Amino acid sequence: MPSIEQLIKLSTALKVSPAELLPNQDDEIRQQLISLRSQLSLIGMKIDSPVILEKIIDHAKSLDPDLD
Q: To which H or E segment does residue 13 belong?
């Protein structure tokens, strides 16, 4: 994370508000989604049982019916 002085210099150079350079809640949620999807993908690749994979898929669909 840059210092306040660096943030002000950068925002001045880019002609934007310093607040625009800081991560917001949407950025944090997006990063969390990317991380969780990556983790889920890696775990899924390690599972060698079709039964377990089907259970995971069925459970995910029960949580969100739009996952077809």
A: helix 4-14
Alpha-carbon distance values, 30 to 21, 27, 39, 50, 60 (Å): 16, 5, 14, 30, 19
List the one residue out of 54, 36, 53, 35 whose CA is nearest residue 44. Answer: 53
* Pair of tokens at residue 31: 């990063």
C-alpha dihedral sign at 30, 47, 66, 58 = negative
Q: What is the pLDDT of residue 39?
A: 98
- Kind and range of the H or E element at 32? helix 25-46
Question: What values do phi and psi take at 22, rounded to 5?
Answer: -90, 145
pTM of the model: 0.62
Longest Cα separation, the chain: 57
